[in-house]
């Protein structure tokens, strides 16, 4: 390549549900991070890699983070800590807010910490879900946000529909520092396949289960076996925290578990491009939210104490 290469980390931060994972997937051009309509879907930092710039000279390593919110439980604290540390390590931070929600209390709380937590990183603003509002509202929101914080640039986007995301990508490609690429050019994610597989199952569970249940379960891939016929056998465990939850996850006559299994398997087969035999066991583990091993499986730091 004649043009000198550039590369850098771009952290996507914002309140839960802002559309961070949707944007990451769009930038990468593949689904590497799970998305649901519910808050607090992403639990750990997920990296997705994209090539951008006029002659494809920039490698952008997007870091999807859990949403920033007021943590209550140990898991919440670990998620929020992971999100801020993602911001602290990045070359560029993109704060995502929702156009129709505007400057919420949650956004104000993030703005208060932004300077101190983003270090030397450049901070851009991405107003997402512009498909939900009128243009006039966007202009007012843009100027009010920029009065509150000196953003390097503001973008109005729809991560879902792809509006404005090209301009954001082009800008990011210009902003990242010169230097060698950080990953091989064909790599799009750096999570191990077993984690991606567990996340896919967790997404399907989150979509089908109600109230608190999605927040009180975790999925782990226990075993992965390559079969001689080219298919893969994947064994997973869903840990739930209460006796009653096992029955809910199973559903009447096992229907919920079956539907989850089918949906997860189909997505895995598409992702891997081959047949998958998926076996999902549900186990009650009352204390999983307090177990260090569960956190390391999720890629989170297990934090002691209440801070
Ligand atoms: N209308 C509209 N919906 C969007 C847009 N971008 C994302 N969404 C939806 O917003 C919801 C949340 O998207 P996610 O990408 O999971 O949000 P997130 O910020 O990663 O959420 P957490 O992982 O919980 O922090 C999903 O239902 C998306 O389909 C958009 O541009 N317009
Ligand atoms: Mg997410």
UniProtKB/TrEMBL annotation:
Similarity remark: Belongs to the TRAFAC class TrmE-Era-EngA-EngB-Septin-like GTPase superfamily. Era GTPase family.
Residue span, Era-type G domain: 6-178
Spans annotated as G1: 14-21
Binding residues annotated for GTP, in chain numbering: 14-21, 64-68, 128-131
GO BP: any one term: ribosomal small subunit assembly
Keyword terms: Cell membrane, Cytoplasm, GTP-binding, Membrane, Nucleotide-binding, Ribosome biogenesis, RNA-binding, rRNA-binding
Function in brief: An essential GTPase that binds both GDP and GTP, with rapid nucleotide exchange. Plays a role in 16S rRNA processing and 30S ribosomal subunit biogenesis and possibly also in cell cycle regulation and energy metabolism.
Cellular localization per UniProt: Cytoplasm; Cell membrane
Pfam families on file: KH_2, MMR_HSR1
Protein name: GTPase Era
Segments forming domain KH type-2: 209-286
PROSITE patterns: G_ERA, KH_TYPE_2
Keyword Lipid metabolism: no
Region annotation G4: where it falls in the sequence: 128-131
Positions of the UniProt region annotated as G5: 157-159
Region (G3): 64-67
Gene Ontology CC terms, in alphabetical order: cytosol; plasma membrane
Region described as G2: 40-44
Keyword Plastid: no
GO MF annotations in UniProt: GTP binding; GTPase activity; ribosomal small subunit binding; small ribosomal subunit rRNA binding
Domain of life, per lineage: Bacteria
Membrane topology label: Peripheral membrane protein
Originating organism: Yoonia ponticola
Subunit structure: Monomer.
């Amino acid at each position: 390549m004649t043009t000198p290469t550039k590369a850098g980390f771009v952290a996507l931060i914002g309140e839960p549900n802002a559309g961070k994972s949707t944007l990451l997937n769009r930038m990468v051009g593949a689904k590497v991070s799970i998305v649901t309509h519910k808050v607090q879907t992403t639990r750990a930092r997920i990296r997705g890699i994209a090539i951008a710039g006029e002659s494809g000279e920039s490698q952008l390593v997007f870091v999807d983070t859990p949403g920033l919110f007021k943590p209550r439980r140990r898991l919440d604290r670990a998620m929020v800590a992971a999100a801020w540390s993602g911001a602290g390590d990045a070359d560029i931070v993109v704060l995502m807010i929702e156009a129709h929600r505007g400057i919420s209390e949650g956004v104000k709380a993030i703005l208060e910490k932004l300077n101190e937590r983003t270090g030397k990183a450049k901070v851009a603003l991405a107003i997402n879900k512009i498909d939900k509002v009128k243009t006039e509202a966007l202009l007012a929101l843009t100027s009010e946000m920029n009065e509150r914080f000196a953003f390097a640039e503001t973008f109005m986007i729809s991560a879902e529909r792809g509006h404005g995301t090209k301009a954001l990508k082009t800008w990011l490609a210009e902003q990242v520092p010169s230097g060698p690429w950080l990953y091989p050019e064909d790599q799009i994610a750096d999570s191990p396949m077993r984690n991606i597989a567990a996340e896919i199952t967790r997404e399907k569970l989150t979509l089908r289960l109600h109230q608190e249940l999605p927040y009180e379960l975790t999925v782990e891939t226990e075993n992965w076996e390559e079969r001689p016929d080219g298919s893969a056998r994947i064994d997973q465990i869903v840990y739930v925290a209460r006796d009653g939850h096992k029955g809910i996850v199973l559903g009447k006559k096992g229907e919920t578990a079956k539907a989850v299994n089918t949906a997860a398997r189909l997505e895995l087969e598409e992702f891997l491009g081959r047949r998958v035999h998926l076996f999902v066991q549900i186990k009650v583990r009352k204390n999983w939210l307090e177990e260090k091993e569960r956190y390391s499986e999720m890629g989170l730091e297990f934090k002691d104490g209440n801070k």
